[in-house]
Structure formats: structure tokens, C-alpha cells
């Protein structure tokens, strides 16, 4: 089953992720190779509702492959959560003659894409979020770059921690997911990783800090996912009160994790996802998300993506613990 489109739209939505630009470029250029006109929608679903879009040709996506952020801008759009907002978006799409839409974004954006699909709009989703909390794909665009940023930061923090015999609580992003924290903890040799998916008491954290000191370590790095409870600053206060040999400091890495030039991995993933998104549309594989499974890019129904949660790999928590002893 194939479909000949004259014109399609592309947008980026939710938190930006390094590699979104590489994906926009791939969508525009692969569509252009098939003589399909591409409308670049500005500011995610907000741009769709407001009718903010411009035609994009091959030259409009030159020199963006290596840039972080998104040249189309992104947004979190409350209006789109309501049926009236989505009907407005549909009206604007019809006005522009936009026959299908590629949505590049995270789990929330894919929920939005599903709602459009339910109104009869042919959509393809591309997973892009540093959180890697999207069901159905091994990796989303931006995760690898964010991880490398975190690793670079923790390596630097460890230098100063060791010089001062300090325990550092390093907070990573990830919303309700501990993915970034766990992966970063393993590859930086952190003494402990705290994630929302695994309840850990303040006493357990204190015991781990004491153990690190007893073993003669000059530092104790604890990676805390932002969704962990209690919050990082509260946890640090509680730890600092205890007599374990270290002084305590907190470093909240923040939005630095979302920026920067995408890694080679993210550029490749984004380029492959972008090409496949257009291919899925023209092949009639509608309302699918481009997903990385092993080395292959496969279609996964967006309906499945949004109705399932990505499980946390608990074995990695144990791995982080054993390898840092
Ligand atoms: N259940 C939903 N129904 C309709 N639109 C949604 C839904 N969830 C999210 N969206 C849209 O997707 C946007 C981005 O979602 P958000 O969760 O903020 O980021 P991300 O896509 O990066 O996970 C939201 O601002 C909203 O416009
Ligand atoms: O953009 P904001 O409002 O600062 O949101 C921060 C959130 O966005 C993220 O950086 C990315 O999440 P999304 O990809 O789901 O948008 C989360 O890790 C974090 O919780
Ligand atoms: Mg999200």
C-alpha cells in the first residue's frame, strides 16, 4: 500500500534534544528527493494551531546537521491537550494542504501525535528526548549526546571531589526516568545511583557514603536522577549532618544536558529516523513511530508507544554498585 503525498509537515515538540536538526534535515531532503513539498511548522503544536509554517527546501536545512537545539523551535502547548485546540490544528493543516505530519519529540509529543491520528491525520512519530523514556525504541534522539555531556561533567566533578575528600550529589535530568542517571553512573564509576524507579532510604545512602570512606576512597559520587525522592538538596542536607569523613556538595547539571552539538551516534540515528519517517508515510505505514531495535529501524504503532511504559533495567543499578566497590 503506497500513498502519493504532495505536501507534508514536520515539527519538533516538547523538550529539545541534540540531533533534532539532523532529523529535520533528513525529512526535508528525503521528501524533496521524492518531490514532496515540506512545511516546517514553527514551535511544535503551537505553530500548528497558529498556522505558523514555512516551506522548506534543501538549502533551508544546510549547515544545521551539527547544531544542537531545533531551528523550527519547540514548545509545550497546553492548548493542544484539549480537543478544541486539536481541531484548530487540523483546520490549519487543511488550509495549508498539509496531508501528513512528522512529529519529532518525546513521549508527550507522541501522545499528541496519536490524538491527531485519531482525527484521521496520517502521522509518523520520531522519538527525540534526552530522557530515553519512550517505549518501543532502544534509543531516542539526543540521549547519547546528553549522556556524553553528563559523563564529561562527572569526570570533572570527580577531580575536585577527590582533591577535597568530598561526597558529591550530582543531579541529572530525566523527568520520571532514571535512565540517564544509571547509564552515567556506570560509565563514570559512581559510588551510588539513585533513581525514581527504585526506592532508597536516606539511611541506605548514608551507609554507602560511609562505606566509600572506610574503603579509603577520596571521593564519593552519587548520581541522583531528578525524579528521585527526597529531592537532591534535602538528601544532601541529611547526608552532610552525618559524621562519615566527607564534606558534601551538590551539583545540579540542569539544561546544559539538553544542548550542544550532537554526537556521531545521534547524527546517524536522527538521519536514519528522518529518512525512515518519510519512507513510512509514502509506504502507507501510518501512525507509526520510527524505532531502533538492535541495528534496525522498524515501525512501532504510536498507539502501543503511548500505552506502555519503558521498563527500567534494574540490573544496571546492581552493575553500578558492584563495579564501583
Ligand atoms: N495527552 C496528550 N494529548 C494531547 N497532546 C499532548 C498530550 N501529552 C502531551 N501533549 C502535547 O505534547 C507536548 C509536549 O509534551 P511534553 O511531555 O512536554 O514533552 P515531550 O514530548 O518531550 O515528552 C505538550 O506540550 C502537549 O502539547
Ligand atoms: O523544558 P523544561 O521545562 O525545563 O523541562 C525539563 C524537563 O525536560 C527534560 O529535559 C526533557 O524531557 P522531555 O523530552 O520529555 O521534554 C526532562 O529531563 C526535564 O524533566
Ligand atoms: Mg517526555
UniProtKB/TrEMBL annotation:
Keyword entries, A-Z: Allosteric enzyme, ATP-binding, Cytoplasm, Glycolysis, Kinase, Magnesium, Metal-binding, Nucleotide-binding, Transferase
Residue ranges the record marks as coiled coil: none
Keyword Transcription: no
All copies of domain Phosphofructokinase, residue ranges: 8-281
Class of this enzyme: transferase
EC numbers on record: 2.7.1.11
Taxonomic superkingdom: Bacteria
Cofactor(s) needed by this chain: Mg(2+)
Pathway where this protein functions: Carbohydrate degradation; glycolysis; D-glyceraldehyde 3-phosphate and glycerone phosphate from D-glucose: step 3/4
Compartments, record wording: Cytoplasm
Molecular function terms from GO: 6-phosphofructokinase activity; AMP binding; ATP binding; fructose-6-phosphate binding; identical protein binding; metal ion binding; monosaccharide binding
InterPro entries per UniProt: ATP_PFK (IPR022953), ATP_PFK_prok-type (IPR012003), PFKA_ATP_prok (IPR012828), Phosphofructokinase_CS (IPR015912), Phosphofructokinase_dom (IPR000023), PKF_sf (IPR035966)
Binding, ATP: 15, 76-77, 106-109
Positions with a binding annotation for Mg(2+): 107
Activity regulation, short description: Allosterically activated by ADP and other diphosphonucleosides, and allosterically inhibited by phosphoenolpyruvate.
Active site residues of this protein: 131
UniProt main location, coarse: cytoplasm
Record-listed substrate binding positions: 129-131, 166, 173-175, 226, 249, 255-258
Binding of ADP, residues: 25-29, 158, 189-191, 215, 217-219
Family in the record: Belongs to the phosphofructokinase type A (PFKA) family. ATP-dependent PFK group I subfamily. Prokaryotic clade 'B1' sub-subfamily.
Alphabetical list of NCBIfam families matching this protein: PFKA_ATP (TIGR02482), PRK03202.1 (NF002872)
Protein name (database record): ATP-dependent 6-phosphofructokinase
Gene giving rise to this polypeptide: pfkA
Amino acid at each position: 500500500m503506497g500513498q502519493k503525498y504532495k505536501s507534508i509537515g514536520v515539527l519538533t515538540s516538547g523538550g529539545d534534544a541534540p540531533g533534532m536538526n539532523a532529523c529535520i534535515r533528513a525529512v526535508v531532503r528525503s521528501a524533496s528527493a521524492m518531490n514532496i513539498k515540506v512545511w516546517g511548522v514553527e514551535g511544535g503544536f503551537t505553530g500548528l494551531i497558529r498556522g505558523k509554517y514555512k516551506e522548506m527546501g534543501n538549502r533551508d536545512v544546510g549547515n544545521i546537521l551539527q547544531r544542537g537545539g531545533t531551528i523550527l523551535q519547540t514548545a509545550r502547548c497546553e492548548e493542544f491537550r484539549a480537543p478544541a485546540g486539536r481541531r484548530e490544528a487540523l483546520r490549519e493543516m487543511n488550509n495549508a494542504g498539509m496531508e501528513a505530519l512528522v512529529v519529532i519529540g518525546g513521549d508527550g509529543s507522541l501522545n499528541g501525535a496519536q490524538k491527531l491520528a485519531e482525527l484521521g491525520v496520517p502521522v509518523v512519530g520520531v522519538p527525540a528526548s534526552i530522557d530515553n523514556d519512550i517505549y518501543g525504541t532502544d534509543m531516542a534522539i539526543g540521549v547519547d549526546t546528553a549522556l556524553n555531556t553528563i559523563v564529561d561533567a562527572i569526570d570533572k566533578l570527580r577531580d575536585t571531589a577527590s582533591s577535597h575528600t568530598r561526597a558529591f550529589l550530582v543531579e541529572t535530568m530525566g523527568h520520571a526516568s532514571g535512565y540517564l542517571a544509571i547509564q552515567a553512573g556506570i560509565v563514570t564509576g559512581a559510588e551510588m545511583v539513585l533513581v525514581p524507579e527504585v526506592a532508597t532510604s536516606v539511611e541506605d545512602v548514608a551507609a554507602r557514603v560511609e562505606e566509600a570512606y572506610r574503603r579509603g576512597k577520596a571521593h564519593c559520587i552519587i548520581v541522583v536522577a531528578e525524579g528521585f525522592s527526597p529531592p537532591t538538596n534535602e538528601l544532601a542536607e541529611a547526608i552532610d549532618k552525618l559524621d562519615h569523613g566527607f564534606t558534601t556538595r551538590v551539583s545540579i547539571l540542569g539544561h546544559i544536558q539538553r544542548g550542544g552539538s550532537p554526537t556521531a551516534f545521534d547524527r546517524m540515528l536522527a538521519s536514519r529516523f528522518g529518512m525512515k519517517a518519510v519512507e513510512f508515510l509514502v509506504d502507507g505505514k501510518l501512525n507509526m513511530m520510527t524505532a531502533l531495535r538492535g541495528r534496525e529501524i522498524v515501525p512501532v504503532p504510536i498507539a502501543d508507544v503511548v500505552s506502555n511504559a519503558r521498563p527500567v533495567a534494574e540490573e544496571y543499578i546492581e552493575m553500578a554498585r558492584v563495579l564501583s566497590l
